[in-house]
Amino acid sequence: MGKATASLEHLFRVFTKPEGKDSKLAQIEEHLSDNLSDFLSQHVVTKAKSLEEIEQNFQDYKVPESPEFVTKHAEVLLEKVVSHSVNTYAPTFIGHMTSALPYFHLPLAKLLVGLNQNLVKIETSKAFTPLERQVIGMLHELVYSQSEDFYKSHLHSAKQSLGAFCSGGTVANITALWVARNKALAPNGKFRGVAQQGLAAGLKHYGYESMGILSSKRGHYSLSKAVDVLGLGREQMLTIDCLTQRLSPEKALAAGREFEQRGNKLLALVGIAGTTETGHVDPLDELADVAKELNCHFHVDAAWGGATLFSQRYKDKLKGIQKADSVTLDAHKQMYVPMGAGMVVFKNPEDSNAVRHHAQYILRAGSKDLGATTLEGSRNGMAMMVYASFNIFGRQGYELLIDQSIEKAHAFAQLIEEHEDFELITAPTLSLLTYRVKPSFVDAHCSKQSELLDKLNVAVQKQQREAGKSFVSRTRLAVEKYGLNPLTVFRVVLANPLTTEQDLINILQEQLQIAKLTKSWKELEDQALAQLKRSVG
Amino acid sequence: MGKATASLEHLFRVFTKPEGKDSKLAQIEEHLSDNLSDFLSQHVVTKAKSLEEIEQNFQDYKVPESPEFVTKHAEVLLEKVVSHSVNTYAPTFIGHMTSALPYFHLPLAKLLVGLNQNLVKIETSKAFTPLERQVIGMLHELVYSQSEDFYKSHLHSAKQSLGAFCSGGTVANITALWVARNKALAPNGKFRGVAQQGLAAGLKHYGYESMGILSSKRGHYSLSKAVDVLGLGREQMLTIDCLTQRLSPEKALAAGREFEQRGNKLLALVGIAGTTETGHVDPLDELADVAKELNCHFHVDAAWGGATLFSQRYKDKLKGIQKADSVTLDAHKQMYVPMGAGMVVFKNPEDSNAVRHHAQYILRAGSKDLGATTLEGSRNGMAMMVYASFNIFGRQGYELLIDQSIEKAHAFAQLIEEHEDFELITAPTLSLLTYRVKPSFVDAHCSKQSELLDKLNVAVQKQQREAGKSFVSRTRLAVEKYGLNPLTVFRVVLANPLTTEQDLINILQEQLQIAKLTKSWKELEDQALAQLKRSVG
């Protein structure tokens, strides 16, 4: 059943004739288009199966021998895939950076696949090439605000590039540090450059023991992927403790100097504009000075926080970002574009040439083919989604979205602070905050109770996630108030414009209900009671 | 006009209410769904503007200040973007590897964006994680055909991975060589491994001058990106001339030995299964032996040719591929999935651990989070498109598609050979071939006429592309018959199942018409006439 015959006629139909209007796939599509929220509530099962149960649906390890009718497969997709996916559109899914998207991306996604361009080369992308360059130029302008003349000469130049479009922030960060590495070990005298001769020859020529990158402990894991892939080694990823969640410029300078005194070269200092865990912004302006002092590349990872630049009220939180040599921004985060739109912009458009590649049949020298200066080769036309979003939202639209997110985070922080059984751990800089359940009777500085608190918070987060109504994430974090021992905390990202204050109140209530039924809560109560008895006794 | 007011109400509508059924965007969508081919013929202008003209539409370098109505923007998209994109669906677009896609991908693209999962982590992807692992397992089985027990223990193992899903073949190749590098410079005694200590320390510990990669001159440009980004240096990308378009195992062995005699270590030998330029397949079986002899990693870049394994009739062309340590395959090429679906599979599931990364808030140790062993971080659910295609086509469906492509290529080769004014340059191994216009009166071995021939072929390719009815690509290629001097040739990829033999006949006719009107044709005629006179005189 559901098996189709493998005939060329059948196959050609799949390429030339859409499914009928009454087919299952057409029904799915209509439901999606009419009411995405309703489609998801209806098809994504709220009571989650365990991963092991879900895996049972994905045990076949051979490509099926016979074809299957599209309609039959549409049912399989609903049953096996959609039902056990994550409802990222839900206003109560506030645990990660993936949020509801505007409706217009649904038809645009279809247009994108209908056009199926390949941006590696103009011959397979035409208008998409200048479109992508324009999008990157707009982000460049958002960060660096250069003159009209600057953009006129660089936006569509075959000789330079203002940045690179990437599948995500990780590739963007790797690209930035790749550029930095190739610039730091540039051709010099008889040395033909690291891109040509390799890293060992480069270090030797310049007389460096090794090269490192410096960021706070809150730096994204992509930085450690970058130092691995670029050949620097993860031990050269220098991270600095930050109980305040922000990198101290003094500590950064001291660490950089100490590293260089040992015969090494600091390749890049990385400032973070919106850490993944708490949303904090490093003191970019001061860090820019440190980078200057250390004569190294200054990269800012603004994958999350970059969109704050749209807001007149809050953009100062990123003060100094325009001093960065390179900046990573993810449009699939606070710019409300579907997953797959990371970008890096370079202050100096020459920088992209540090990684320029050519090939005869493709990416000919002198062409504007995008593949010549990107890490990736073949890529789809995601830039169109960014282009549409920039135009449809406008700067003012983004400003409203950013402002309301930050203000909602402040309102939520206040709710937490006013509640006797919760503790705010990190207040929001942008729209992220962390907190935990801490029953009013608990002494969190007591190490025994602190351990139990961690257990309690792990249990609450897990059970809430499994109940399926709402989702906050959790992490472990060291904070000033409690010293170097990390605590287990809830992490909340208030990016979804559809999340209401009532949703947040409900999430707290649900957490408290769950907490009160845990063994840890009971144990904490017993301990508190015993302590009370002792102190009274 | 077209400008919307920036109000939260307006913005919320964009997130919660689809465009009306009569809106421009809904019209576009309906047209796309009803008849993609008609939509494209109607909206993609056939007479191409120059890139410089198209760039005029993309001059703004600031994100627009005010929002724009979706309907207004839909018109902009049609006018500025769609009209000047490339019609990759057209049966006469046979110049690159991007082809028509089956219809079901249109609604699936919408579903993908509606779900907007992030595959970096199970918490944001749930069923998509085992789905992606299954898809990779199926490709692993296609290449390596291991036992049921093997797949039972590895398909969903938290400790290993059968491969990595990537945005494309370039990232897949880089990932494979990253793994190879980290394995070759693995922890050893006091040395903590290249991933930890870096490349220079690794080379020093193992006593290597440098490390290189070897492939034929037809290797994809992504290999040279890989040696750059991985720190080996592009001079360590050893390429071997191949007038036969295939890497000679003897030459490979000799070059590898010579490289190692100079104190270097050959990191990897790369065999190509379907070169980008001519579709040739290296002698993989023999190259596997060479790699064994040289004790190096054997990687096969089967981005294009991998799908041939679906065909009982032609899979032997890839004989020996199962001996590779790693294999790259692109589902967005001959598996008819939209752009953005590259994969690498590893023979040994342990290999992925050479690049494993963890982070506290994400990718916890022991979890099955996909981001722990991929170069990329956040990624979308493209694996669903591969999953759907595997099920809907089945192995038999793909076999029919592959067989007819290869047979069409042979039929086209015969058409060319039978035509007195064309010359077949490389016959098809898979569904690629190269040829050129060569008027019957030309002596192509005469260097003066050979230069004119190149000019003629450049002109024909350009003019045909600009005329907009059909598109073949061009490249420069050295072939046995004409020695080391590269010729300009047309390159044809017969991947689109909708391309008919009549289309191919028309393409040749159009090329001949264009050719006869060029200056070069006239000059070639004059030369031939002069020569004739001399010989008669």
Automatic annotation (TrEMBL), chains A, B:
<dbReference type="GO" id="GO:0005737">
    <property type="term" value="C:cytoplasm"/>
</dbReference>
<keyword id="KW-0663">Pyridoxal phosphate</keyword>
<comment type="similarity">
    <text>Belongs to the group II decarboxylase family.</text>
</comment>
<feature type="modified residue" description="N6-(pyridoxal phosphate)lysine">
    <location>
        <position position="333"/>
    </location>
</feature>
<dbReference type="GO" id="GO:0004351">
    <property type="term" value="F:glutamate decarboxylase activity"/>
</dbReference>
<dbReference type="InterPro" id="IPR022517">
    <property type="entry name" value="Asp_decarboxylase_pyridox"/>
</dbReference>
<dbReference type="Pfam" id="PF00282">
    <property type="entry name" value="Pyridoxal_deC"/>
</dbReference>
<dbReference type="InterPro" id="IPR002129">
    <property type="entry name" value="PyrdxlP-dep_de-COase"/>
</dbReference>
<keyword id="KW-0456">Lyase</keyword>
<protein>
    <submittedName>
        <fullName>Glutamate decarboxylase</fullName>
        <ecNumber>4.1.1.15</ecNumber>
    </submittedName>
</protein>
<dbReference type="InterPro" id="IPR015421">
    <property type="entry name" value="PyrdxlP-dep_Trfase_major"/>
</dbReference>
<dbReference type="InterPro" id="IPR015424">
    <property type="entry name" value="PyrdxlP-dep_Trfase"/>
</dbReference>
<dbReference type="GO" id="GO:0030170">
    <property type="term" value="F:pyridoxal phosphate binding"/>
</dbReference>
<dbReference type="GO" id="GO:0019752">
    <property type="term" value="P:carboxylic acid metabolic process"/>
</dbReference>
<dbReference type="InterPro" id="IPR015422">
    <property type="entry name" value="PyrdxlP-dep_Trfase_small"/>
</dbReference>
<keyword id="KW-0210">Decarboxylase</keyword>
